[in-house]
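Q: Got a minute? One more chain.
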Amino acid sequence: MDYTAVTTAMNDASGKGDRKKSMMATVHAPTDAKIARSFAALLRNHPAVQRLWSRRDGDAIEFWVLTEPISRASELSIYQLATTFRERFPGLHPRIHVVHADLYDTDTFVFHEPVGAEPVQLSR
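A: Always. Here it is, folded:
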């Protein structure tokens, strides 16, 4: 939380203004880009992650995580990052979509970027 010093004028009984300092808490909501970079940092230790996209949807933020084919345990470890994410950004609900070729019953896997989502630079 950021704090901003605010000077307020207080009038005494004689009408003269005494200046007193007070502290007022102001909350600066993180930008969507900062939120996405934070999630990208959480993915740093997952070498299978290839690309990441994000999109805001009201009080939720969606992440698409494109990976090479991974085990179910590795996939679940990515989904479990939502817990850490909620601790950093209370009130914001992450929706995580892990995508890789093994999830589809096809010989040719082609992933199209999610409509309206922004690519996020992975932190490595």
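A: Strands lie at 2-11, 17-26, 49-57, 60-67, 93-99, 118-119.
Q: Perfect, thanks.
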